[in-house]
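Example S7 (structure tokens).
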């Protein structure tokens, strides 16, 4: 996972979610990146876009409902990954309100098939808290999408067995 200024990132676990990896930037969680795997019935063409994103969205909806997350979708984006596959990027502004607080996050994620991982879909994303600086958070998120996501490398030929 490409991380700029890598010494400032700390490994984290996500409460209630089994992930491959997660990192936070700084002690104040200025940004969080993570990766997880879902499994779906992939189409005959494993490079077909959309299947993994839809599966991840279906997986995430119950959690979003549980935590009353309001989501506003930004314009879709995409990039051509190393193997020539088109990777769709979903970007959202997510607002979560509880009795004690209200937080807004600028989030982007990409979900794409890794067929050799037992019909796995790799989902990689970033969340940046707005903290009254929405445009700054958007710039951080968008820069990671443009510079970080395309540099991601899948190095394992098999579905990683450990989840954290």
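Recovered sequence:
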């Amino acid at each position: 996972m490409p991380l700029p200024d890598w010494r400032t990132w700390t490994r984290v676990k996500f409460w209630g979610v089994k992930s491959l990896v997660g990192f936070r930037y700084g002690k104040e969680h200025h940004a969080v990146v993570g990766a997880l795997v879902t499994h779906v019935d992939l189409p005959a063409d494993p490079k077909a876009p959309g299947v993994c994103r839809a599966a991840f969205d279906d997986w995430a909806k119950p959690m979003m409902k549980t935590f009353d997350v309001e989501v506003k979708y930004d314009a879709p984006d995409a990039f051509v990954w190393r193997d020539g596959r088109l990777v769709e990027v979903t970007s959202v502004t997510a607002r979560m309100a509880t009795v004690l607080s209200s937080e807004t996050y600028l989030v982007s994620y990409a979900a794409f098939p890794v067929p050799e991982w037992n019909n796995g879909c790799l989902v990689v994303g970033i969340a940046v808290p707005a903290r009254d600086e929405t445009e700054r958070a958007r710039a951080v998120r968008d820069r990671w999408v443009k510079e970080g996501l395309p540099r991601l490398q899948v190095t394992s030929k098999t579905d990683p067995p450990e989840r954290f």
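Notes on this example. The CA atoms of residues 63 and 88 lie 22 Å apart.
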